[in-house]
Design a protein that fits this description.
Length: 299
């Protein structure tokens, strides 16, 4: 039995692995995709301390993964199919694994619009990650749906690829940070469509247009939906307390209502979700596991 099982290898999970392994705990980290989570899909990170000129999201997250492994954590690229919080164990395709402590760094996934054509055209023009798919539409007319930081950054990234970007936002001003919003408004390749919403996506084999709530129709090659995230907490529903949006209720000490189970990163109910706050959660959660190890050794 391991000392700690970490579920998720985003910044929270990887930092938890680093701190726990450096403290002498045995650590397994389980990740269904590649390290980094949403951060690993971010083209450029400009607000992480120590990187004044910015750093690529994939580069930053791979460095975190390598550091966790150097510290002694074992990184397993296996999806977790079931989590038993009370038993502090998880089930993967290889069977059940248990530990003295669980750190749930489950992350969050993009929120869907839920409009006609979205599901059918996902992967055929409708995307949720400009960093992942933007290069496919270099120099073409595209739309970004949303008005927060993520949407603004997606629009800027696409503009840098030479795209003509329609930024569709249901309000009359961006919700993004002032500096980011200013860059969007000053970019000649970005045209905001204020007080508008995407009502439907059109196309047969591929996306060709977005229909707006006002009745207008805009021809585009791609649409990048960026309207927030939903926590990936389905596997712990009914086991842990969740807030109204489905985020895990855990305080600044990352403790959940189940002994030995901690929540870290974007899946935890909190005000700010950034790489730096996810990493902080990971460090805090790991620190909560260390006394248990010392207690067992003394006992």
């Amino acid at each position: 039995m391991q000392d700690v099982l970490v579920i998720g290898a985003g910044p929270a999970g990887l930092t938890a692995g680093i701190y726990a392994a450096r403290a002498g705990l045995t650590v397994d980290i389980y990740e269904k995709d590649m390290p980094g989570g949403q951060a690993g899909r971010t083209d450029r990170v400009e607000n992480y301390p120590g990187f004044a000129a910015g750093i690529g999201g994939p580069e930053l997250c791979m460095a975190m993964a390598e550091q966790a492994e150097r510290a002694g954590a074992a990184l397993h690229y296996e999806g977790v199919a079931e989590i038993d919080c009370a038993g502090r164990r998880v089930r993967t395709a290889k069977g059940w694994r248990e530990a003295a402590q669980l750190i749930l760094a489950l992350g969050a996934r993009p929120r869907l619009l839920g409009v006609p054509g979205e599901k059918e055209l996902t992967g055929r023009g409708v995307s949720y990650c400009a960093t992942c798919d933007g290069a496919l539409y270099r120099g073409r007319r595209v739309a970004v749906i949303g008005g927060g930081n993520s949407a603004a950054e997606e629009a800027l990234y696409l503009a840098n690829l030479g795209c003509e970007v329609l930024l569709v936002h249901r309000r009359d001003a961006l919700r993004a940070e002032r500096a980011v919003a200013q860059r969007v408004l000053e970019n000649p390749r970005i045209r905001p469509l204020w007080n508008e919403q995407a009502a439907a996506f059109e196309g047969e084999k591929a996306l060709c247009a977005v229909k707006l709530a006002s009745g207008a129709r805009e021809e585009i090659a791609a649409a990048f939906v960026s309207i927030g995230r939903e926590p990936d907490t389905a596997l712990v529903r009914g086991q842990l307390a969740l807030d109204a949006q489905g985020f895990i209720a855990a305080g600044e000490d990352c403790r959940t209502g189940v002994p030995g189970v901690f929540a870290a990163g974007d899946a935890r109910a909190k005000r700010l979700r950034q790489i730096v706050t996810a990493a902080a959660d990971g460090a805090v959660a790991a620190s909560q596991c260390i006394p248990a190890k010392e207690f067992c050794e003394k006992g």
